[in-house]
């Protein structure tokens, strides 16, 4: 891990949410933290270069944009995992995919403009891979979603 | 529904904001509108909650959270609202949802737990279990990241 100091941590904790919507956003952050705009820009560039910050941008919930999202779990025999992963990851609507320690070993999220498109795609995936045990688990209630991590 | 212009702004915000003095000026120019107009639309998208979160996304592995567990819980339906809210109040829980169970999968509430290692994830789950008095749950650790991207809307 690249070295980050206390000032980097302050910047990271400041910009994970409520990035300033202002013509000079880095100047706003600089003023809050008692730094110069140039210093903030330089440090953020370094944090991105070192891979500590993956990206800075807007994060959108599918529902408010008129899209649908679901979590899928598939029971994939070991010898089919590689092929199954290639097929599933080929869909742009599959944004996250993890191998997990369970009979249902492949877990992926699927976003599309309607649930019926998702269902059609899952049927197509089954057809293309021979994997038929795929659970479609859309969320019915959302209690929390946050991707903020306080860096200590 | 979003206007065509709003869709363009959404599309422009889902990549990387330039790390320069006037990042929004660059983005505005890329879709052919003024910086003022661009900022106004971003402000509206933000206030209406269409932008869920605006800011930096960290690479978790590099910021000290090495383990993540998806904990799937079997919660009595009439307790789901109460239990979901309590689970969501834990700082280590980043996501908490109710999902319909399936015949081969009885769990109906899901929490994502992030911690430094697997043992800590297990300990956090045990603490939550005790607090909400739910003992039927399973931890699914991610053994391999197979894909992780952001959805690209309106492109």
From TrEMBL, chain A:
Enzyme class: lyase
A molecular-function term among this protein's GO annotations: lyase activity
UniProt-listed SMART domains: HTH_ASNC
Pathway(s) annotated for this protein in UniProt: Porphyrin-containing compound metabolism; protoheme biosynthesis
Cross-referenced InterPro entries: AsnC_trans_reg2, HTH-Siroheme_Decarb, NirdL-like_HTH, Tscrpt_reg_AsnC-like, WH-like_DNA-bd_sf, WH_DNA-bd_sf
Record's keyword annotation contains Heme: no
Reaction catalysed by this enzyme: siroheme + 2 H(+) = 12,18-didecarboxysiroheme + 2 CO2
Keyword Lyase on entry: yes
Name listed for the protein in its UniProt record: siroheme decarboxylase
Record gene name: nirD
From TrEMBL, chain B:
Pathway: Porphyrin-containing compound metabolism
Membership in a protein family: Belongs to the Ahb/Nir family.
Residue stretches making up the Siroheme decarboxylase NirL-like HTH domain: 6-52
Catalysed reactions, as listed in the record: siroheme + 2 H(+) = 12,18-didecarboxysiroheme + 2 CO2
Record keyword Transmembrane helix present: no
Record-annotated Siroheme decarboxylase AsnC-like ligand binding domain positions: 62-147
Gene Ontology MF term list: lyase activity
Protein name: siroheme decarboxylase
InterPro entries in UniProt: AsnC_trans_reg2, HTH-Siroheme_Decarb, NirdL-like_HTH
Alphabetical list of Pfam families matching this protein: AsnC_trans_reg2, NirdL-like_HTH
Enzyme nomenclature, EC number: 4.1.1.111
Domain of life: Bacteria
Entry keywords, A to Z: Lyase
Entry annotated with the keyword Cell inner membrane: no
């Amino acid at each position: 891990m690249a070295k980050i100091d206390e000032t980097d941590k302050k910047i990271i904790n400041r910009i994970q949410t409520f990035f300033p919507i202002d013509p000079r956003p880095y100047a706003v952050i600089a003023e809050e933290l008692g730094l110069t705009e140039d210093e903030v820009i330089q440090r953020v560039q370094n944090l991105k270069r070192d891979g500590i910050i993956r990206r800075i941008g807007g994060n959108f919930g599918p529902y408010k944009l008129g899209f649908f999202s679901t979590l899928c779990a598939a029971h994939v025999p070991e010898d089919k995992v590689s092929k199954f992963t290639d097929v599933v990851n080929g869909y742009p609507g599959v944004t996250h995919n993890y191998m997990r320690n369970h009979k249902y070993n492949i877990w992926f999220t699927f976003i599309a403009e309607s649930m019926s498109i998702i269902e059609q795609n899952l049927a197509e995936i089954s057809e293309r891979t021979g994997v038929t045990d795929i659970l479609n688990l859309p969320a019915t209630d959302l209690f929390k979603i946050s991707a903020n991590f306080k860096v200590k | 529904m979003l206007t065509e212009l709003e869709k363009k702004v959404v599309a422009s915000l889902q990549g990387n904001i330039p790390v320069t003095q006037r990042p929004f000026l660059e983005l505005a120019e890329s879709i052919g509108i003024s910086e003022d107009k661009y900022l106004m639309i971003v402000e509206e998208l933000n206030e209406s909650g269409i932008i869920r979160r605006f800011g930096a996304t960290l690479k978790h592995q590099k910021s000290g959270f090495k383990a993540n567990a998806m904990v799937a819980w079997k919660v009595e339906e009439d307790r789901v609202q109460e239990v979901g809210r309590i689970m969501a109040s834990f700082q280590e829980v980043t996501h908490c949802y109710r999902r319909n169970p399936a015949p081969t999968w009885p769990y109906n509430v899901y929490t994502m737990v992030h911690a430094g290692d697997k043992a800590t994830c297990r300990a956090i789950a045990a603490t939550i279990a005790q607090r909400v008095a739910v003992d039927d749950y399973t931890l699914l650790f991610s053994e391999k990241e197979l894909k992780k991207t952001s959805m690209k809307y309106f492109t």
